[in-house]
Amino acid sequence: MFRYELLHVDQNCGARLGRLHTPRGVIELPTFMPVGTCGTVKGMTTDMVEATGSQILLGNTYHLHLRPGESVVKELGGLHKFMGWDKPILTDSGGFQVFSLAQRTVVDEQGATFRSHIDGSKITITPEISVQIQQDLGSDIAMVFDHVIELPSSREKVKDAMDRSIRWAERCRDAHTLESQVQFGILQGGLDESLRIECAKELRQLDFPGYAIGGLSVGEPPPEMYRIIEATTPHMPEDRPRYLMGVGRPEDLLQAVLRGVDMFDCVMPTRNGRNAMAFTDDGFLKMKNAIHERDPRPIQAGMHTPHAELSRGYIRHLFMAKEMLAGMLVSMHNIGYYQRLMTQAREAIAADRFLDFFEERMAGWAGGKSSD
Amino acid sequence: MFRYELLHVDQNCGARLGRLHTPRGVIELPTFMPVGTCGTVKGMTTDMVEATGSQILLGNTYHLHLRPGESVVKELGGLHKFMGWDKPILTDSGGFQVFSLAQRTVVDEQGATFRSHIDGSKITITPEISVQIQQDLGSDIAMVFDHVIELPSSREKVKDAMDRSIRWAERCRDAHTLESQVQFGILQGGLDESLRIECAKELRQLDFPGYAIGGLSVGEPPPEMYRIIEATTPHMPEDRPRYLMGVGRPEDLLQAVLRGVDMFDCVMPTRNGRNAMAFTDDGFLKMKNAIHERDPRPIQAGMHTPHAELSRGYIRHLFMAKEMLAGMLVSMHNIGYYQRLMTQAREAIAADRFLDFFEERMAGWAGGKSSD
C-alpha cells in the first residue's frame, strides 16, 4: 500500500524525482505540503487547496490534541472526513510545538509536560501518547515524537536531545499499530555534522519507511541549514522519502531539493498570504503598497490556480478594505506558487537541468525589485 | 438585450415566476442577490459564490466610491473584471448608505453631502454623480439615487422625501447614457399605503425597465413591511421586475414572494455566517454551541453547495479555534440556503403550490428548536 519509488536523480546534482504511493493516492516528489494546523489550511477551503495542485496536507498533532481533541476527530470519522480532504495527510508528532509554543515545558525520559498555550492546562505528551493521538487522527503518515531544542546549543545538550530522540523513535515504532498508517523517523543532531550522521545511522537500524530532517529552521542562518542538509542526505537511505520539516522560503526549498530532499512543509505561504506578501519569480510583492493601486497585472503570470487573473490593483484594494478575501486569495496564490515551483523542479530534474532551473529562479528572486 | 419575461403567476397567490434577460445572462426569478459591498462577497471567492447558485451580485456604489474609487475600478476594466465575476451585477445608488452609514449628512434638493465613515472626508453625491459612478463601475442594473429616511417619521416628512426621490429619479433617468446598463426606479413612501401608491403611479410615468421597493427594513415591525408590500405590488407594472431592497430573513423573502416580489438582496447570510449563525429548514443554528461538538450531521441535509457534507462538529470546532474557514463555510452555506429557498420557490410557483411550500417552511422555522 505504501511505497517510495525513486524515478530519477539529476545527472548534475542530488535532486531526486520520485513517487510516494499511498492508499489515498500517489504523491509526485519533490512536493510541498500545505499546513492545516487546526484541521484547516488557514483561509482556504479544501477545494481551494486542491486547486493549488497540493497532493498532501500536514496536520498538527499538538494543536488538534488541544482543540478539539483527537477523540472528537475520531468520533467524527477521522481527520480526513473531519476536514473534508480525501488525499493523504501527514501529521507531525507535536515535538516541535512542545518546543516552540507550549509553556513551562519540562522534558524527561518519559516525555514532555507543559502548559497549553490556549488555556494553560497541564498536558503530557510521551512518545506513546503522540503515536496514539496520530492513530486516532488517522493520518496516512505519522511522525515519531522527538526532542527539539533551540540552536545554537552546546554539543552535549544537542547530543543528549538527539540520543533521547532516538530512544523515543524506537518507543514510537514499538507503540505503532495502525496498519493504514506509516511512521517516519526524524533525524536530529543540531548543526553538528557528525551528530547528524550518527543519528542517521542509528535511525536506519529502526527501518522507518521514510525519514525527516528535524530541528532545523529554528533561527540558524540559512547557509548553516544547507550545510547540515548536504552533510545528512548522503547518509539517509536512497530508497526512502526524505522530508525537511518546517522549511521554508522558496529558495530554501530549491536549496534542499538540490541536496536530495523530497518533501517540505511550512506555514509561510499562508501566513505571508494573510500578511499581504505574495511570492513571484521576481521576489515577493507587498500587496498593500500604493504602487499596486492601478496595476492591472496578475501577481504572477502563468499561474494555474483559480482567480490567478485578478489584478494587483484588486488584491491591493481588498487588503486596504480589510476584506477576508485578500488573505484567502494571496494564501491560495502563495501555495499555488510553491506547487508550481515543485512542478517546475520535477520537470527540470526529469530533464537533468535542475541546476539551470535553480540558477534561473535564484537570479529572479535576487534581482527582482521585491518592489513594493 | 434587457428584457423581463413573466412566465407564470401562482393560481393561489401573487407569487411570480419570471426571467430577467440581460447581456450577461438570464436570471431566473424570484432570486436572491448576495451583497458584494466592497467588490467582494465577504469571505467568499467568486467561485464559491457561483457554486451557491447565485445568478447576480449586488455592489455598493457608496462603498466603492469611497474605496478604491470608481476611477480605479474603471481603469482596471470595470467592476466585473475587477472582482472576477462575469455574471450580472446590480449596483445600488448609495441612497441607503448615505442614510445609514455616512456621518453628518445634509440633504438638499441638489443632493446629499456627508462625511465618509472611513476617513471623515467630505463627500457629495447627487443623482447625476450616482449615475456617473454606476456607469464607471459598469454594472448591468443601476439604481436611481433616492432619499431614504428613518421610520417612523411624520407623513409630511415621508412625503417630502418621496417627492424628492421622484424628482431625483427623473434626473437620474435624464443623466443616464450607458447603453449596456439599465436603471431601476425606487418606490418610497414609508409605511403610508396611499403615498406608496402615489409614488408607484408617478414613477410609472418615468417608464423604468424595473422597479424597487425601497425604504423598508429600516427597523419597522415585519408585519408593517408585509402590509406595505401587499399594498404596493398591485400598483407596480406587471411586465417589469420587482425588487425589494435590503430584505431580509428567509421568512421575509417568502412573505414578499407571496406578494409578487421577484428580487432580493441582504447582507444577512454573510454577516450571520461570520457570526456563527447558520440557516436551516428547522430554524437557525448557533454554531458555537457545545451541543454541536460531536454532531456528525451536516448543517442542513440536501444542500448542493460545496462542502455541505462537513459536520456540525467540524464547523463548531472552526469557530472555537477562530479559523477564517468557519465564517467562509457558513457564509457559503447561508447563501446556498437562500438560493435553495428561491429555487424551491420557483419550482413551487410553477406547480401552483407556493402557498403549501410557504406554510411548510414557515412551520419548520417556527417549530425548529433553533437549538442550540
TrEMBL record, chains A, B:
Pathway: tRNA modification; tRNA-queuosine biosynthesis. Keywords: Glycosyltransferase, Queuosine biosynthesis, Transferase, tRNA processing. It is an enzyme of class 2 (transferase). Its EC number is 2.4.2.29. GO terms for cellular component: cytosol. One of its GO terms (biological process) is tRNA queuosine(34) biosynthetic process. Transmembrane segments: none annotated. InterPro entries: ArchSynthase1/Queuine_TRR, TGT, TGT-like_sf, tRNA_ribo_trans-like. Residues 246-252, 270-274 are annotated as: RNA binding. This is Queuine tRNA-ribosyltransferase. It comes from the Bacteria. The gene is tgt. It catalyses: 7-aminomethyl-7-carbaguanine + guanosine(34) in tRNA = 7-aminomethyl-7-carbaguanosine(34) in tRNA + guanine. Homodimer. Within each dimer, one monomer is responsible for RNA recognition and catalysis, while the other monomer binds to the replacement base PreQ1. The keyword Acetylation does not apply. Residues 14-365 form the tRNA-guanine(15) transglycosylase-like domain. Belongs to the queuine tRNA-ribosyltransferase family.
